[in-house]
Design brief:
Helix content of chain A: over 70%
Number of strands of chain A: 2
Shape of chain A: globular
Oligomer: homodimer
CATH architecture of chain A: Orthogonal Bundle
Low-confidence stretches of chain A: 1-8
Mean pLDDT of chain A: 92
């Protein structure tokens, strides 16, 4: 599908939010010249290396769509999600885990510094996320994040991913890995935006489904890009899933079916968002962006 | 100093609280047979290996001393502190950090399982701590913990400790390491008990001082025990600080001065607690216990 006018303005909405998130992350991260400098520099290196900022943008979009208007609440909460995402990447890249050398076109943190600093910087980002999220004043939002990234969420998916290496996996297993390792945090990003805006139970349930569908589509496309993507755009080594004998969605159902499933999930997410009857439906723009991304 | 009658009943108070904390930790930890089993078993292995439970006991004692009586608030909060403490030990023991083989008389987690599981189990305990603490309903308590164990607290001390290995350190540096690496979480344990009980600013300030003094004494005694202690009681290798060229308090001021300083800190902490004019002053019992412990 060619990008039409709506998508161009869509990219512009996303670009605008991304710039906001980048500046907020810079603001909330500890200064590089404050003690312990090396740890702060390592945290900044990883977080400010770029990225789509999709999780904070989902939280901001949801919060604002449902009438939230207190930047002091949503700005730290949105950034908390990116801090967590970056922590998970740093620990994921460690030699004892995926042992990756390249991330966003740059050396991974343990390559740039050393393993001890990478472990501690990941821990520090994990931690600052809860500091920021607590700044929203909502213990419920803190619980939502902690559960999304715990052993019944992201860490469970991460453990399953490690265990599945080199194994034959079923569609059920790969869906477990994807909905937990990546999906749970994306789902929580939407839900935290909704919780902080004070949406009702019914809306929260629909938002949850929107988050689940875009989250699974996001990771299927990640797997597709590892096969078909452009290394210079992705900033990481193509084919690394295959090399590491990773469980992937195309590895189980094939590339054609993977494309179809991702497209269907995006269509379903868009259909859900239309039920909200919003004047400016940025959920459509975000879902399309996730469905069409090339990095 | 010989243990008198007050200390005997003191040990009994502490023992009673420790048994309570042990049973609560067992309750709050994920079941060993729920997926991902290996991760849950690893978490349980490390947390339930024993330990003095001094941080949760400090939180419980403070909460109850100032009129707190809701177990649904303080029980998860107290256990959060032990989860964090255990996460810090697991990551601290990793090969890229202190590379320790023995902890509480048992193989360290990465020796028992593997490095990937140890990294993830540490992350999972870090995470469940915030889940539990958020269960108290207090975003302020969450912020307190996150800041205590972040880069301006525990992780800053940990980084300084790593950087100081093999270096000549000053008294100022060793005090920075101790007040941050160990002191910040002990201080936060007391403060969180106070915050959840709703104490006033003045009392919170005095509690903070009590926590700072007992926290520094705790770590000085830890260093002393690494020189003079009984390996069978400690459950870890004696002399490992020296072997690892660790910055220690006796290494800077000598053993005699270390004993004097620890005793003085304990006396000061006890004096502060007397200002609270409590009917049953368990703060005295706790401070004496910290000052006289042999493991």
């Amino acid at each position: 599908m060619k990008l039409g006018e709506q998508e161009v303005s869509g990219l512009s909405y996303i670009e605008q939010k991304r710039l906001l998130v980048d500046s907020l992350l810079d603001k909330y991260l500890p200064r590089a010249n404050s003690y312990p400098q090396m740890l702060h520099q390592a945290m900044r290196y990883s977080v400010l290396a770029g990225g789509k900022r999709i999780r904070p943008i989902l939280a901001l979009t949801t919060y604002e769509a449902f009438g939230g208007h207190n930047d002091n609440v949503i700005h730290p909460a949105a950034c908390a999600l990116e801090m967590v995402h970056t922590y998970s990447l740093i620990h994921d890249d460690l030699p004892c885990m995926d042992d990756d050398d390249l991330r966003r076109g740059m050396p991974t943190l343990h390559k740039k510094y050393n393993e001890a600093t990478a472990v501690l910087a990941g821990d520090a980002l994990h931690d600052i996320a809860f500091d920021l999220l607590a700044g929203s004043g909502s213990a419920a939002a803190v619980k939502e994040l902690a559960q999304a990234i715990g052993t019944y969420g992201m860490l469970g998916g991460q453990m399953a991913d490690v265990e599945a290496e080199g194994q034959e996996v079923s569609l059920e297993q790969i869906q477990y890995i994807h909905t937990h390792k990546t999906g749970a945090l994306i789902r929580a990003s939407v839900r935290i935006g909704g919780l902080l805006a004070g949406v009702n139970e019914k809306t929260l349930a629909r938002l949850t489904q929107y988050g689940e569908k875009t989250g699974l589509a996001f990771q299927i496309i990640d797997d597709i890009l590892d096969v078909e993507g452009d290394q210079s755009k992705l900033g990481k080594t193509i084919g690394s899933d295959c090399k590491n004998e990773k469980a992937t969605y195309p590895g189980v159902v094939g590339l054609a079916q993977s494309h179809d499933d991702a497209n269907q999930l995006i269509d379903e997410a868009i259909a859900i968002s239309r039920e909200f009857e919003l004047k400016d439906n940025h959920f459509v723009i975000l879902a399309r962006y996730i469905g069409q991304r090339d990095n």
